[in-house]
UniProtKB/TrEMBL annotation:
Protein origin, superkingdom: Bacteria
Protein name (Swiss-Prot/TrEMBL): Uncharacterized protein
Amino acid sequence: MAWTTPPRLDPERSRRRLQLLAELAGSRTVRQRERPQRARRERLRELIATRRRIAG
């Protein structure tokens, strides 16, 4: 069985797909920027919990 080329997407569907991919890339950038803050918060919570267990 020979491979055939996939059918071309209609322009509207292609535009929506590109828009979705751009939005996903934008959210990925935001998440990567927030990661250091999230890591810092998690580390601080761990330290507080450890301190409470020790003092407890």
